[in-house]
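INPUT
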Amino acid sequence: MTTKFTKEHEWVRMEGDVAVVGITPHAAEQLGDVVFVELPDIGKSFKENDDMAVVESVKAASDVYAPISGEILEINDAIVEDPAKVNEDPAGAAWFVKIRPSNPAEFDALMDEAQYKEFAGS
Amino acid sequence: MTDALKRTPLHALHLEFGAKMVPFAGYDMPVQYPAGVLKEHLHTREKAGLFDVSHMGQVWLKTKEADLGSEGAHEAVAAALETLVPGEIRKLKKGGLRYTVFLNEEGGVLDDLMVTRPAREDRQGYLVLVVNAAVKERDYALLRENIADRVNVEVQDDRALLALQGPKAAAVLERIIPGVGEQKFMEMRPYDWRGAYLLVSRCGYTGEDGFEVSVPNSNAEDLARMILADGDAEPIGLGARDSLRLEAGLCLYGHDMDETTTPVEANLGFTLGKRRREEGGFPGAEKILRQHAYGPSKLRVGLKPDGRAPAREGVEIQSVDGALIGRVTSGGFGPTAEAPVAMGYVDAAHAATGTTVHLIIRGKPQPAEVVDMPVVPHRYYRG
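OUTPUT
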């Protein structure tokens, strides 16, 4: 299982031919306590870098961009019901969406973990 | 590179407590500590939160028209200030605080402020003002340009201001400054604390019981450390200060009112003193009194969005049939309300409590209800 990262602090993990997407612990920490999550409708298609979801903390709202192009297969209702989960386990249980990629080359072009760590300065 | 940010006397203490610092009104200020905005907010409502508000402007007015402590000294300094504000300052009791606003000739709000008449006999003829950090230089200029022939404008740059807020604030502060627990709400008393001259006011910006302590810069860190040594007190950043005042329905200057809004439109009609309404004699009086009598065309109201999506500053407010009727001026998530909380201006026809409006969040209309403020009831000390 390979996990890759975007400059917008999202992670993408390929599970078979499905991409699981979430925000990184660094992003969750920067946001602070998450109080609201809006996820796209299942079946909707996005191009890479389209606005895909919204995550808000007490103080600020942030867009989550589609890290790769594709169709939404599944969304994580648990984080809509309880947004605090995003702070508790951003890299695991608090995934945002599952996408069927339409262009696998986009995934290959994302940063690997070492590159992301250097990018995020951690 | 812009001008270097100013620092309050507690700057090093904020860093020691792990604060995330941000620029605010020209100062490097703590927006949150490691606990985070949500926990800081809830801690303040549950126990006691310490806020560094030293960036705010402290200025004392001293009459030139009478000897301090003499008959008529208070009358003189109050009459001078009343030319700039619509509040009843002359009849303020000794030690009494009043919330009021500086006005321009169009009746717009230049700033909101706290005015206090000192308690001590020998300080009669002084008024103690606390103004907003972002516009304090403009406030000082306003005072100097308009009433410097009648008062000395004494800016207290050598004093810090600490706010301790929450249901445990009185117990915590009483252990450090004995006597404060006896103070009434909106009362200021002076204290000699380790040789330092403190002015302690029972007031705040959270809707909770609490105090603001004016302390010489050189004693501010000692006082803050003593407060924070108490298990019930935690340091609280600007993030929670904002969510607390939002739930309490309190205005943030420059957002919820400014030079383009009158106190009547801002739903601050209580700042118009009864005698002042009859006599006028403050900037913009004609317009403000007309609005007070006949109603303003727009009004600041509380808004309770349906659902969980916060409505932030700038969000468009529409009537249910899609007409633009106003904008959100402050909004976010209320940790105590456990729901989004907002305020904004709407056309008077839509300002009645219970009116349904639409907030346009990311292009989509979200229903919301016009509600009475505060959303979280005030718990001021009424003992």
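end of record. The beta strands of chain A are 3-5, 10-15, 18-23, 34-38, 45-46, 51-57, 61-65, 70-75, 97-101.
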